[in-house]
Specification:
By secondary structure, this protein is α+β, with helices and mostly antiparallel strands. The chain contains three helices and three strands, in the order ααββαβ.
Amino acid sequence: MADETDLTPTLDELVADSPELGTALQPDGIETSGEVQMFPFPFCFRYSGRPWQSTFINAPGPGEAGMTADGIVGMLNMAAVRKGYQALFSVTGGSCP
């Protein structure tokens, strides 16, 4: 019998009750002001250490993109717990393999 860490939540499952999470994970999903130049930074969101979803986060610099990615990880973990999964999301820079 598989333990709970073998179950991986789907994006559709997690965003069902949290549309802002779905928007945040889409390319160009984060709203920006027209005065700041934004650049796309690739990130790989992982669940239990395994690649789960690649996305680009538009930000003025890598530090801001990393802070946004960390915030999305927090949202993913909260949504996972609400759906009965363990809070095992993390993020790494670059696209998922």
